[in-house]
Model the fold of this input.
Amino acid sequence: MLGIRDVTIVTMQNGTMTKGDVLLADGRIKAYGEAVDLAGCERIIEGRGRVLTPGLIDAHTHLGLSESGVGREGTDTNESTHPLTPYLSVRDGINMQDQAFESFRRAGITTVGILPGSGNILGGTGLALKCRGDIVDDVVLKDPIGMKAALGENPKGLYGERKQSPATRMGNAALLRSALLRAKDYLNKGEDHPRDPQSEALIPVLKREIPLIIHVHRHDDITTAIRIANEFGVKCHLAHVTDGYMVTDVLKRGGVYCGVGPTMHYPSKVENKERDFRTAVVLDRENIPFCLFTDHPVVDGRNLVLTASIATQWGLSDESALAAITVWAARYLGVENRVGSIAVDMDADLVLWSGNPLELTTFVDMTIIDGEIVYQRGMQPC
Done:
């Protein structure tokens, strides 16, 4: 058992507690509050009034797929050979030896969503995992979290240059519809037909077991994504939503969950030329559910908390900014029953900070995943 004594506990669900204690055992939070009995602990960490939060969650990354410091050989983000590859799984491409995992731990990030890139209309399934260990299968938190889809400039640019479809936004939408229609027909036929891996991969989407996670920036792509999701009655999460502040009524009617980011990245193409922090502030004001993410390595994941901090300079409250990289990010991934907040029986994924996490002069002093210390400031990597 591991004890943490005398910390300010930011639970994210049940307020903030000063001078609290936490008891961890078997990878879970066993107790927290005032004067928790820590007598049986093998080790007690003296908090000395520092801040304890849930582990941070970067809900949309390409960690382990687009490896840091490697180049072409370490790039496995897009299977750019056909625009429809829903049968792919990122589990088969993640390298847990990517050096960025250590930088994530040093930044207090304990859970990540990892998704295929946005080159294809359908790119395959993503997963959520813990930032520890050497074997991906040992640290998967949820697989799949959703089916990656993409609209806008990326797929039409990639395949249009090859004189293939899709070469327009109309082609993007048509290919996504055709894949869903084919899968719907396949599902309705029952078992008496030849195997179709593309359609089989989309059955969990049609059954609403997993969402489509759709890459969109521009307002018209946002409305197209929601239109298609409604046509087929599937669940839909949106990623990026640069122009989300323009279409809040559409987002509300669609009932979608938004992942906003990478807000710290410069405008890299026409469809995200207005990129800034407006969308996060407006979504929060309009009570539209969202989280913040880095899209690592587009923005280095270790800047996740900096992203939240800058958002407060644009008007996001401290509470919403921290929630957007903890509990709201957990909801986006569908893992809020395990991570994202401090509560009894939740996973023991915690970060001990030298001060307010949103202050630029604050350091991560300790990162804990599943009850084990995986990073401690001033010590060699664990």
Q: What stands out?
A: The mean pLDDT is 96.
